[in-house]
# Entry
Amino acid sequence: MSLDQFCTSDDWSPLTSAASHSQLAGVLGGFLITAIALLFDRNSRESVHTLALFASAVLILMLDSFLFSLLTGMQVPGDSDARAVCAIGWTQSALSTGMLAAGSTALFGGLGWMLAAHAVGRAGDVDPDDVRAFSFLADLGGWLTFAAAMTATLILSETTIDYLRFMYDDGPDLWLIILIMGSACIAVVIDFILVQQRTRDLRHSLANTEEMTRLALRSIKVATVGLAVLAVVSSWLALSLARFPREWMTDPNTGMVVVVAVLTFVVPTFVGIGICYSVASTGRPEPAGRPA
# Structure
């Protein structure tokens, strides 16, 4: 494969796109810091869930912005070392894309909780005939989370295939492509089922105006810990690639490629499933008048 100074493959360059991706990750992280400041003024138990997701998302997005900015300064030599340098760039881009996707999913997961908590808090103070409008708001939060998780999973599956296509000149085997795409489809179906169940239970609870709706905090530790681990491990690996033997890049080391694929696709997908599992829903109903 002939390489140019931008490591272009399939008419796309990870180096020229890195600057805009870095800005996007930084803007999203800054937005979350503002949202966290607003949530500190709330004393509800639901805000704890949202704060946890947002805090982990800030970490991964800020580190991601830094990693993408490093790509903008990469210089590709015109000698035989160009292949190794471009392989490092593609690997760093794949890892950074996985971090960006996971952080963005967490952002919408927290936003969904904010919408659901607002709907639940206001539904008890309005006429029963107006509860339907707040049910729609709660549903919207859950389905926005699903949309973010689905989009992230599909994008990461294509990112992983593009990464493997660059690392192996003849491209990954057809069975591997089918495995990646099939896994992405299965993950999307799981996300859909989880969100559909969670939003349905919450909608039914809001419709029952005789009992107080109490949101259940599910799987938050899985999502937040997963985000933090992904942020630390992916950042360390991306920064350490230049210290690895060059032969691992020019003649790809299978173990390293598998680790990168797991961090780019598998871990963010599981984090997305955890966030969809934690979509706002109801716990055990409590009699009206008892504090939540």
Notes: Strands lie at 211-212, 215-216, 281-282, 286-287. The radius of gyration is 21 Å.
